[in-house]
Amino acid sequence: MEATKPIQPKAKPMAQNEKAHKVSGVKNAFWVIIVCFVVAVLLFIFWFGHESHFEEGHPKDLWGTIYKGGFIVPILQTLFLTVIVLSVERYIAMKSAKGKGNITKFVAGVKACLAKNDIAGAQALCKKQRGSVAAVVAAALIRYEEMDKNTELTKEQKVATLQKEVEEATALEMPALQQNLPIVATMTTLGTLVGLLGTVMGMIKSFQALAQSGAPDSTELSTGISEALINTAFGIATGAFAVISYNYYTNKIDNLTYAIDEIGFSIVQTFAATH
Questions:
Q1: Among 134, 122, 118, 96, which Cα is nearest to 20's?
Q2: Beta strand segments in 49-155, E
Q3: How many helices and strands (H and E) does the chain possess?
Q4: Contact 63, 48 (CB under 8 A)
Q5: Rounded to an integer, what distance in angstroms lies between the CA atom of residue 134 and that of residue 99?
Q6: Dihedrals φ, ψ of 179, to 5°?
Q7: Of 194, 191, 200, whose CA–CA distance to 224 is shortest?
Q8: CA–CA separation, 176 and 21 (whole Å)
Q9: What average pLDDT does the segment 84-100 reach?
């Protein structure tokens, strides 16, 4: 007599798994960096370097002074613009992930429906809310109904299957939430280091002007100091903005993750208590 194999629940169709992914955003940040570089170079040449900002070769306003920062300036501007663009992109993505309503109220509403064993009501809330949290909950509720109707698995197997569904749905959403944030984190250090490089190069020019025989060349000296200070300013600004952006969106992701964990735990516990 052959041993009876444990019956596994049917896997969800691939289309349904793909549908759970609801976070919008830029998939390839490489093109963002390229576009920002082109914009930075055009600004450096045609705006900062425009003759209207100079008088007898000397800068007469802030834009001309920035131009004197040298070729490092477009690189720093590229990093700064990239941080700004990706921060805006993450804002749109987080808004999409959050959904239409308040997350706290949504979680409370779903938990209330679960307490009354109103699965249809919880699913209606998911359709209304949308976003990453709602996508995870919707996937878990579909599996909840399947386990509710399943008469072949034990209670422990059903609970384990439901728990696995929540984990898989969460894992599907997390990469989209964290997308492009590693690049913003890299800009935190890279912006400061490139700014420091520009500062060192500017100071080298200043010391070269001082080392010349006879009276120091005041033009070369001022150019070197300008290059050093401008690059320092851009480097600090890029690093500071990147740190603020990264920490802000990391906190947003943590809040969404906490909401997903809370409601996923409630779904599993409700099933375990009522079956």
A1: 134
A2: 54-55, 58-59
A3: 10, 2
A4: yes
A5: 8
A6: -60, 135
A7: 200
A8: 8
A9: 92
pLDDT at 1: 42
Q: Residue 13: helix, strand or coil by DSSP?
A: coil
For residues 117 and 9, the answer to whether their CB atoms sit within 8 Å is no
Show the tokens assigned to 255. 């809040």
In terms of C-beta density within 10 A (0-12 exposed, 13-18 middle, 19 or more buried), how is residue 196 classed? middle
Distance (Å, whole) CA 179 – CA 186: 13
What is the C-alpha to C-alpha distance for residues 233 and 227, in angstroms, rounded to an integer?
A: 10
Q: How many CA atoms lie within 13 A of 199 on its CB side?
A: 12
- DSSP letters spanning 162-191: HHHHHHHHHHHHHHHHHTTHHHHHHHHHHH
The residue type of 205 is K
Give tens-digit pLDDT for 18-57. Answer: 444 456 677 888 999 999 999 999 999 999 999 998 888 7
CA distance 257 to 269: 18
Among the ranges given (56-70, 157-171, 208-222), the one the predictor scored with the smallest mean pLDDT: 208-222
Euclidean distance between CA atoms 89 and 21, whole angstroms = 17
Q: What's the Rg (C-alpha) of the chain?
A: 28
